[in-house]
Fold this sequence. Notes:
The structure holds two protein chains of two kinds. Chain A is an alpha/beta fold. Helix content of chain A is 36%, strand content 20%. Chain A has a single domain, classed as Response regulator (Rossmann fold), CATH 3.40.50.2300. Chain A has a five-stranded parallel beta sheet. Chain B is rod-shaped, with a radius of gyration of 63 Å. Chain B folds into four domains: 16-141, 2-Layer Sandwich (Beta-Lactamase); 186-296, PAS domain (Beta-Lactamase); 327-557, Beta-Lactamase (2-Layer Sandwich); 558-713, 2-Layer Sandwich (Heat Shock Protein 90). Chain B is 46% helix and 23% strand. By secondary structure, chain B is α+β, with helices and mostly antiparallel strands. In chain B, the strands form five sheets. A six-stranded antiparallel beta sheet of chain B has the order 6-5-10-9-8-7. In chain B, strands 12-11-15-14-13 form a five-stranded antiparallel beta sheet, sandwiched between helices. In chain B, strands 17-19-20-22-21 form a five-stranded mixed beta sheet. Chain B has 22 helices and 22 strands. Chain A binds chain B through residues 10-14, 16-18, 20-21, 24-25, 56-61, 83, 85-87, 102-107, 109, 122, and chain B through 490-491, 494-495, 498-507, 509-510, 513-514, 518, 522, 530, 533, 536-537, 540, 585, 620-621, 668-671.
Amino acid sequence: MSDYILVVEDDRDLREILGEALELEGYDVVCVEHGAAALRHLETGARPCVILLDLMMPVMDGWTFQRAIQSDQSLARIPIVVMTAAGGSRAETIQSDATLHKPLEIGDVVDAVQGYCPCREH
Amino acid sequence: MYGYDMKSGQNDAKAPESRPGAVHGAPTELLDLLIEQVVDYAIFVIDRDGRIASWNAGAQRIKGYSADEIIGQPYGVFFTEEDRRAGKPREILAQARREGRYEEEGWRVRKDGQRFWASIIVTALKDATGELKGFAKITRDLTEQRRVDEVARRAAEERAARQQAELDERDVRRSRDQLDVILRSIAEGVTAQRPDGTLVYANEAAAQLCGFSSAEEMLAAPRSQILSAFEIAHEDGRPFPAEQLPGRRALAGETSTAVVRFRSKRTGEQRWSTVSAAPVLDGDGRVDLSVSVFRDVTERRDTEAAWQFLARVGEALGSSLDVPATLAQVTDLAVPRIADWCGVELLDSHDRLEQLAVAHVDPEKRELAKQWRRRWPPRPESAPYRVVRSGAPQLVPEITDEMLEKGVPDPCERNMLRDLGLRSVMIVPLIVGQKPFGVISFATAESGRRYGPQDLILAMEIARRAALAVENARAFTEARMAIQTRDNFLAIASHELRTPLSGLTMLLTSLVRMADTRLAQLGPQVLKDRLLKSERQARQLARLVDRLLDVSRLSTRDIQLERERTDLAEIVRDVLSRFEDTIAEAGSEVSLNIQGPTEGVWDRSRIDQVITNLVGNALKYGAGAPITISVGSGWTGQVRLTVRDGGPGIAPENHERIFSQYERAASDEYAGMGLGLWLVRRIVTAHGGTVTVDSVPDKGAAFTVILPLNLGAAT
């Protein structure tokens, strides 16, 4: 398993901000804009240490993406941290290792991912 | 005159001249003759010893003795045995001696032993010195008079008795009249029957209950005719044996009460009565009369039944918000309780009555009714349409053949209606607010029942409740949709707001986290970049808040347009220039075709919103595929704008839905509030224009806006 974080978020600004913030915190980050792009990324054989997954996205939403990787044994083991703005119930229908509620706090994001990912040396 | 000399007391009638003070010559003789011959009075002399001393014709006639037989006999022979034993003869003479005379009426006895009623006067005869010489006795036979008196007395008594009887009878008659008035004026029917079944009394109420026009008519009717005019049943419909009726049981000496249903065989009308009956006994304790009291409880029963029915209708109507199912339940409840047939027809979107439900106890007949309606839908001039148009209910107590002839032109339909045997019908409107939206029809056939004004009131109440239930269901659906809409709005709005808020918070917190340690490492360029991004997030937030406020305002009131002369092509160019970055990012090639004049009088900023939404959608859904925008004059006085994308397209069933509030072309897959197209339609419609979509799945979508130029309205 590699030592980078895969960020799946459709909002361009948030995607960039999140990527930069995590890099500043000392993580390697790869950002994609929806579930389909994330699957394409994983099909190359790349294996992030954790996936930060938004739920409501065009083309392929978080739920569909999660179901897709659950069916693949090698991908099913990758921890998923869900980032959701959805109010309550729908977010609970997804299997994940942790859930972050928007608006996000970088401290919470770091807390959620640090157990799965090694930090780069500064 | 025989024997006794009245003056001397001597038995010598031949010395009249020697009598002192005597009437001279002829008068004395005449007097003697008078006494001798008087036949109406017994006049004779009794000597001092009480023996008879003289006798006259009257005495002989009255007493029956001849002078020879009686002279010298004690006068007591004339007395009754009892009087003699009591010493009455002596007593009378003693009294006459003392007082000069004695007078009485009493029973005496004739020679033959026959008694007669006599009036007697005994006078003491004394000489000048006052010495008693004897007694004069005058007896008159009063038997005849007494008989006459007796007859007169009896006559008087009879007269008096008769008068009394008349008085008594008048009293009785008065009491009877009073009783009759009372019995006439009470609502209960009262009858009295002899043990042989003869009806001896019936008041008007009883006559009415039994279908007679008057009590006299009922009393005159043969007994068999009275009961055989009805089918008699228990409350639950079981036949009621006539011999168990309270009136019959009273003839056997029992007092009883029963609730009985009388159904007229002639009119089919049915009425319920509480019947109480009691026996009236004669002096020997035998049943003389059976008195029955009928209380008509039909109205009360009908009211009770109506309330029970309405309660059940209410229950049924309240149990479901599915309007057609609910109305069908009402028809099922109505049969057979208040109708043999019940149907509901509702106006469809073309204002045509459509049969929604029909009920009949017999499923075959139900089919027949459905066939009838399929084959002959109600004609526009028919009763259901009249009711639904006017909102006024219709009651036909009796459907006659004439009505069918007149109202139903098709003879085949007439035959079918005759087969259905409809007898009485009520059609009531279903009204919510002002406008009727359907009718409920109730009809009778087999039961032979006739509807009256009371039934119509019940029917209207049923319709009122049914309509109210429909209204409730509609209101409930609307309320539920409003809640759903609000929830959607909140969910989408919070999602939309949270994303830029996340970015903003993240930027700021990461800056704070860096501030102490590594800010210097990053350098001013990175810092500025972060701050600019923060600013953009804040602006994005502000824009979203504005949009939400705008939408919320437009949801509740009309759009206020600020019209000005505007070039549509120019607005399109402005929008495209604002989207430059997005277009580049989406990788879509955008082409713009402008033909002819594109100027009109519109609200510039609102039209800008329309184009922004359409182009934004095209870029969002059709990223990577070419986008074509055409602007050109359409029909005279119009301008047409079409935005065509190469996105996933929209299924035909969603073409209308996407213009609703909070609806998106493909829910959840694409972020966004689902307000864009709703807003587009609102704005275009406010300008008097139209917006339509033309799309098939996987072939992209083309949105076309047509706006009237409104040049005449230029300001």
